[in-house]
Amino acid sequence: MRTKIFCDIADYKTIIYYNNKSIVDGFTTNPSLMRLAGAKNYKDYSLKILNICKKKPISFEVFADNPKEMLEQAYQISTWGKNVYVKIPVVNSKGIFTGSVIKELSDKGISKKDKNWKKKKLGARFICVLTIFWPNGKFISKIGKIEGRISNLKRGKNGFGYDPIFIPKGKRLTFGEMDPHKKYSIDHRFNAFKKIKKFF
Q: Kind and range of the H or E element at 139?
C-alpha cells in the first residue's frame, strides 16, 4: 500500500524545509494554523507559500461560516495554482453539515468525490508534525499519527472538523462520540507531543 504523508502546518520556514524533503508528499493548512504562523492577509500569505511550494499539492481551507461565502472563497482559492486543493469543513461552527457546498464544488470539478464512497471501507490517518526551533537555527521535528476509518454517518457532537466521522483503529466510537479526555489521550497531536516534550 502506498502511503502519502502530508504535513499539517502553515509556518513558512517549516514548509520551506519540508518542501525539499521526499518524505513529505504535500501540505495541508487551515485558518487557525495560518493565524498562528502570523498571517495578516490570508490570500497574500497563501501566495507567499505557493511561491516556494510550486509542485507538491497543498490544501487551503475556506474560513467563511455560511454556504454562500464558503463557495465564493472556494472558487477564488481554486484559481491560486494547479497544485492547490480546496478544503471545506464537514460542519461549520454551528455544527451545520456543509454537504451542499461540497456537492456543488464536486459537480463543478473543484473537488472530486466518489459517489459510491459510503459502500466502501475507507481508511483514514491523522498526522501531526511538531517542530521546535532554537534561536541558533537548530530545530527538531516529531511526527504523531493515529490510524482509523471513515464512518458513513456523522456521529457525535464533541470535537470539531472531522471528529464526527473519524473512528480510531480498534474503537467503535467516532472522535465526536468519544469523551474529549479519552480522545486527547490517543490522538495524533498527543502522540506528537509525547515524542517532543523531552526537548522542552
A: strand 139-150
CATH of the domain at 132: 3.90.950.10
Contact between residue 32 and residue 63 where contact means Cβ atoms under 8 Å apart: no
Residues 48 and 76 in one domain: yes
Q: What is the pLDDT of residue 77?
A: 95
Measured from the Cβ of residue 121, the count of other Cβ atoms closer than 10 Å reads 7
Backbone angles phi, psi at 84, to 5 degrees: -95, 135
Looking at the chain, which runs of residues are DSSP E strands? 6-8, 26-28, 58-61, 84-87, 123-133, 139-150, 166-168
Query: CA-to-CA distance for 61 and 162, rounded, in angstroms?
Result: 13
pLDDT of residue 2: 66
| Residue ranges of the chain with per-residue pLDDT less than 70 | 1-2, 111-121
Q: What is the CA radius of gyration of the chain?
A: 17
Amino acid letter for position 3: T
**Which grid cell is 129?**
508534525
Please identify, among 84, 113, 142, the residue that sits at the C-terminal boundary of a domain: 113
Domain membership of residue 48 as a residue range: 1-113
Distances (CA, A) of 22 to 5, 18, 157: 10, 8, 37
Say whether both 45 and 108 belong to one domain: yes
